[in-house]
Design brief:
alpha/beta; 8-stranded mixed beta sheet; Nucleotidyltransferase, domain 5; DHBP synthase; globular; single chain
Length: 542
């Protein structure tokens, strides 16, 4: 049984996924192919074509097509609450219908094709986390800015059964609150929420400012009228203007509110279900700091977070949900790695290298050569194996460096990534070494949980530790990514330190690189010292 999962073009991040007989064959975001970050409101045509090629089939041979958004009126009607004056409601209906119809027009077949099934957006998110978590029973939280008829769902699942206990309206959206504060801070909403999260560590929260949150409810609720009045009274920061302490405090305040709300949700769910396992999905689940607080709380013993939790994950979840509906069983895999994108052979890579006329050498041990360069203070692009899904590089398309070297963080931010100097990086290490470097270790394959760095080890990876002494760890296993595991091992053999700095192989404003030509272009136009691509090494003049 062949199931193609798609994000609807109504969404801000689009992707495609292919399930064959309960196994995930391919999963990738459209942005990686078009090179337009997030590919907003775009049909994931190139991602779909990649998935079909990877599965060795044509579109006509697909048995089922699952789309991660509910039917048109199920999206429109809930968004009319709270009721607006008729002229505003009518305009809202018209705009939403126009966007959904435009998206339907881009589908490769009629929406009435018998193979097509529209699946609720947040149910798709939940399916992408709970059914792939490996937990037999767990609570789930799915939150984003706006996902069709609602902005979130809370509940618990057991086996294949889902129990929805609470829905978050679009009017009271936690994701939208974070997005709007992100915009006021002078960043790009739907894209730069990670900047707000990073900036929050430099500020002091002032919870009394957010008097629009009702904390007396079992699940805290946002009064959208009060919220709108509060936000309207703030002066947006001009792009490029100085970031003041007031801006830092505002970031800290919205981060604090989100963390406290999530903790209350986790408490509510643990009391209702009796479970302390938690699955997270939706764009809000990309907040590493909040995830770390959840894991450290008394309400969560174990956590699974879908690493591609933006709307891209709705494509995967829709396919998974359709499989469950059709078979009555979960898919036959646990999502313990994210390497489901394109891979390129040495032959394909060398053909591009020859065409580029750049000098390169073939290495017997590319991991050892890369580790040697890192130990000398070099910043290296690492392009190996299948591309990872999600916004965080996980050793398939990464930029790596020695995090113990003084000044390396500033250099990578300024000369390589072309981004703000205060932005943090992350550490990659062997999964079994996590406890050597952080407090209260836990399985963390996706660089999506923040841990407190151990005081006796922090200087060994200072450049990959944030200002609040937290680190969003990636624990690497040989089974999931042998080339990256070997790189860390070679660096450990050479230096005695088993942790490296990892950041995404891209520059500010661009998606993660996908193909060799993307890697070469990025390598050539930034301050990277070397590129390890397949078995080949390129170096710039010193």
């Amino acid at each position: 049984m062949k199931i193609l999962g798609l994000t609807h073009p109504y969404s801000w991040n689009t992707a495609a996924a292919l399930l064959v007989d309960g196994e995930l064959k391919a999963f990738a975001e459209e942005e990686r192919f078009t090179r337009l970050k997030h590919a907003p409101r775009a049909f994931p045509r190139l991602a779909m074509e990649y998935c079909l090629r990877e599965g060795g089939m044509t579109f006509e041979e697909v048995d089922h097509i699952a789309i991660g958004m509910d039917s048109k009126w199920s999206v429109i009607l809930p968004n009319l609450w709270p009721l607006q004056p008729l002229r505003f409601a009518y305009g809202k209906i018209q705009r939403t219908m126009k966007e959904i119809n435009r998206g339907n027009d881009y589908l490769p077949c009629s929406p009435k094709d018998p193979r097509v099934k529209f699946i609720n957006h947040h149910v798709s998110h939940i399916a992408s986390s709970f059914y792939l978590s490996g937990f037999k029973k767990a609570n789930f939280i799915s939150l984003d800015g706006a996902g069709g008829g609602e902005s979130g769902m809370l509940g618990w699942g057991e086996g294949t059964d889902l129990h929805i206990l609470h829905r978050v309206t679009n009017a009271g959206s936690w994701g939208a609150l974070y997005e709007r504060v992100t915009k006021i801070l002078g960043f790009k909403p739907h894209s730069h929420e990670g900047k707000t999260m990073g900036l929050a560590a430099y500020g002091t929260p002032h919870p009394e400012l957010f008097d629009f949150i009702d904390w007396d409810q079992p699940v805290p609720e946002i009064d959208h009228h009060k919220r709108n009045r509060f936000l309207a009274g703030l002066t947006p920061r001009e792009h490029g203007a100085e970031i003041t302490q007031e801006h830092k405090d505002l970031a800290a305040t919205v981060q604090d509110a989100l963390e406290r709300a999530l903790l209350r949700m986790a408490k509510y769910l643990s009391e209702k279900s009796g479970s302390r396992s938690l699955c997270m999905s939706g764009g809000v689940a990309l907040n590493c700091s909040a995830n770390g607080k959840l894991l450290a709380s008394e309400y969560v013993d174990d956590i699974f977070i879908q690493p591609a939790s933006s709307d891209a994950g709705a494509a995967l979840g829709a396919a998974v949900m359709r499989h469950v509906e059709l078979t009555g069983e979960r898919p036959h895999f646990v999502f313990d790695h994210a390497y489901y994108g394109p891979v390129f052979s040495d032959r394909e890579i060398e053909a591009i290298l020859k065409e580029s006329k750049l000098r390169y050498e073939r290495c017997e041990n590319i991991a050892r050569r890369t580790a040697e360069l890192m130990a000398k203070g070099k910043v290296v692009g690492w392009f190996q194996g299948r591309m990872e899904a999600g916004p965080r590089a996980l050793g398939g398309r990464s930029i790596v460096a020695d995090p113990s070297i003084k000044g390396i963080k500033d250099r990578v931010n300024a000369e390589v990534k072309h981004r703000e100097m205060w932005r943090p990086f992350a550490p990659s290490m062997h999964a079994e070494d996590i406890g050597m470097y952080v407090e209260n270790p836990n399985k963390s394959p996706f660089m999506i949980l923040a841990f407190q760095a151990r005081k006796d080890k922090v200087e060994e990876f200072r450049a990959a530790v944030h200002v609040d002494e937290t680190a969003r760890v990636q624990g690497v296993t040989k089974e999931a990514n042998a080339p990256y595991f070997n790189l860390i091992q070679e660096f450990k053999n050479l230096t005695g330190r088993g942790v490296i700095l990892n950041t995404s192989f891209n520059i500010a404003g661009e998606p993660l690189v996908c193909a060799p030509v993307d890697a070469l272009r990025t390598y050539a136009c930034c301050g990277m010292d070397a590129l390890a691509i397949g078995s080949f090494l390129l170096q710039k003049e010193p």
